[in-house]
Amino acid sequence: MIKTLAGQIKEYKRDSILTPTFMILEVIMEMIIPLLMSSIIDDGVEKGDIGHIYRIGIWMVIAAAFGLFCGIMSGKYGASASTGFAKNLRKSMFENIQTFAFSNIDKFSTASLVTRMTTDVTNLQNAYQMIIRMCVRAPFSLIVAMAMSFYVNVRLATIYLVAVLVLGSLLMLIVTRAMKYFKQMFRKYDDVNASVQENVSAIRVVKAYVREDYEKERFRKANQALYKLGVRAERIVAFNAPLMMMTVYTCILLISWMGARMIVQSALTTGELMMLLTYCMNILMSLMMLSMVFVMISMSVASAERVSEVLNEKADIVNPEHPVYEVKDGSIVFDHVSFKYQKDSEKRVLKDINISIKEGETIGIIGGTGSSKSSLVNLISRLYDVTDGSLRVGGRDVREYDLDTLRNEVAVVLQKNVLFSGTILDNLRWGKKDATLEECKQACKLACADEFIEKLPQGYETHIEQGGTNVSGGQKQRLCIARALLKNPKVLILDDSTSAVDTATDARIHEAFATEIPNTTKLIIAQRISSVQEADRILVLEEGEVNGFGTHEELLANNEIYRDVYESQTNAGGDFDEKAGED
Question: How far is it, in rounded angstroms, from Cα 143 to Cα 154?
Fold first, then answer.
């Protein structure tokens, strides 16, 4: 974990070294000042030597000014190092997440990833700044002040040593007990973020079903759980300050009492007593800083583990050693393919799929909810890898291809696709970043999106809000289809992506596919049989297995499931999930 995080310091190593260097110089100046002050009292004030007071006073001003400069520089480089460290952490996490396969993403919730990149990274940023500043300053100051105290008077310095040992033990006990609550707190942050994210993204549904009170209560419970853990942790940490102050005042009283007696006995000078009291404050303040560092580090340990988990996560799907950079054609062969989401899972979501699809064919895929239609097509672009068997595209196993090459040749349009904030042209050019306006218009024409775009006041320059909230579901789907067509793929997958458009538009889109992109292999997942009945062949899936595969006419004659659904939809307007004969 430490090695993983340390690797993110990168170009900020210089700042990370200069920060403690200047901090040490600042501490040295602070340790010199009590010596000079003692000299002023003993050799200047008590002897009436004004010249000595001026000379030592000038040195004190120089030491203080140099200490101030070192403190400023330490703060400057510390801020640069810690914020740069946080920047690198966020960048590396984001870049690693981009390499994840769907199976990797399934391990982390979206809310958890957001928390790790925000709250957890901020905690590590604060902890790193304290480590390179306070973790250097506090022990160095404590050791030097303790050494100077023993140099002045061993008997009085022993009081400091006992106080340090007692207080250090108590602080370690406090930190250890508080740490377990801090670890639990960050898991609760995930729950709070999940509640907020889900509520905001689905706010229209919440309002449509008048579920505001339910969502408020749900958030209240998550927030309350976080609050309770925070209170428990802080209740323990709160003992830190009173223990510290009690120790400080006890030491001051003991040193003042014993020091006064020693002055009377001429075993100690007034200047030395003042110096010892100053070192007393330095020692105990160093302990206070160390306790703060321990608390911050204990809080950040949980964050460090969570961030390291993302950084160390290896993508389940990577390029082969010698990848193929060309997909010959859009032919697809499922050769006894089986698939399960978890390697240790007993249940297979796809079982012995054995079908062959020619280049340019249009294949309809239908099946009830949970029949693994989407799982089947996700294997084609290697969003997941097959568990058993092999899947070939263009005559080669998909695991032999360069990932970018394969995915550029396999365009997928989901039912719940996403548009990004920007103009319509910006979104279309996700399919082809250098696409001309004419190419975009042609793709929109094929997707039947041109008819509504041209009615917009700004046409293709119309701004799309985040998530496409200012366009309808059908318009969003058509824009996503046009975006996929701009890739000019060898395989086009429509995963129930025309569910929000009317039947007439759906028919025009499929007709355009047949005439304009005849060499592209098209896989169309649909619930409406009318969307796939003109396909070359239709695949019927049931519980992850092939129940039928043939033309519309062949399935009507030989496949009971297909026939029942067809009659249900044509006679009663049902969909695939409705059984024939049900009212």
Answer: 15
Task: Judge whether 512 and 499 are in contact, CB under 8 Å.
Answer: no
CB 119 within 8 A of CB 189: yes
User: Of 238, 242, 235, whose CA–CA distance to 167 is shortest?
Assistant: 242
205: exposed, middle or buried (Cβ count in 10 Å: 0-12, 13-18, 19+): exposed
Cα distances from 112 to residues 115, 156, 189, 260, in angstroms, run 5, 53, 8, 60
Helix axes 270-312, 134-152, angle to 10 degrees: 150
Q: Which amino acid belongs to residue 280?
A: C
Q: Are 36 and 59 in contact (CB under 8 A)?
A: yes
Contacts of 529 (CB under 8 A, 6+ apart): 366, 562, 565, 566, 569, 570, 576
Q: What is the CA radius of gyration of the chain?
A: 35
Does residue 147 come out as left (phi exceeding 0), alpha (psi in the -120 to 50 range) or beta?
Answer: alpha
- φ/ψ (deg, to 5) at 517: -130, 60
Strands 396-397 and 388-393 come out as antiparallel
Helices (H), 238-322: 240-264, 270-312
Lookup: tokens for 28: 């040295």
Question: Rounded distance, CA 185 to CA 193, Å?
Answer: 12
Edge-first strand listing for the sheet containing 396-397: 350-357, 332-339, 388-393, 396-397
Under the phi-then-psi rule, with left for phi > 0, alpha for psi from -120 to 50, and beta for the rest, what region is 210? left
**Is the C-alpha dihedral spanning 480, 482, 485, 491 positive or negative?**
positive
DSSP secondary structure letter of residue 517? -
Residue environment code for 517-540, b if the CB has 16+ CB neighbours within 10 A, otherwise e = beebbbbbbbbbbebbbbbbbbbb
Residues of the chain with confidence (pLDDT) below 50: 573-574, 578-583
Which pairing describes strands 491-495 and 521-525: parallel, antiparallel, or unpaired? parallel
Mean pLDDT of the chain: 84
Dist. CA 428–CA 87, nearest whole Å: 31
Give the list of residues 6+ apart from residue 53 with CB closer than 8 angstroms, or none.
40, 44, 45
| Phi, psi torsion values for 413, nearest 5 degrees | -115, 115
User: What order of strands is seen across the sheet that includes strand 545-550?
Assistant: 410-414, 491-495, 521-525, 362-367, 537-542, 545-550
CA torsion 374-481-478-105 (nearest 10°) is 50
Residue type, 504: A
- Looking only at Cα atoms, what is the longest distance across the chain? 119
Cα(392)–Cα(377) distance, integer angstroms: 12
Rounded distance between C-alpha atoms, residue 293 and residue 316, angstroms: 38
Dihedral over Cα of 391, 396, 401, 405: its sign: negative
pLDDT one-digit tens code per residue, 389-440: 999 999 999 999 998 899 889 988 876 778 888 898 998 998 888 889 999 9
Of 159, 182, 337, 376, which is closest to residue 248 (Cα–Cα)?
159
CB contact set of 278 (below 8 Å; sequence gap of 6+): 33, 34, 37
Name the helix (H) or strand (E) containing 495: strand 491-495
Read off the pTM. Answer: 0.68
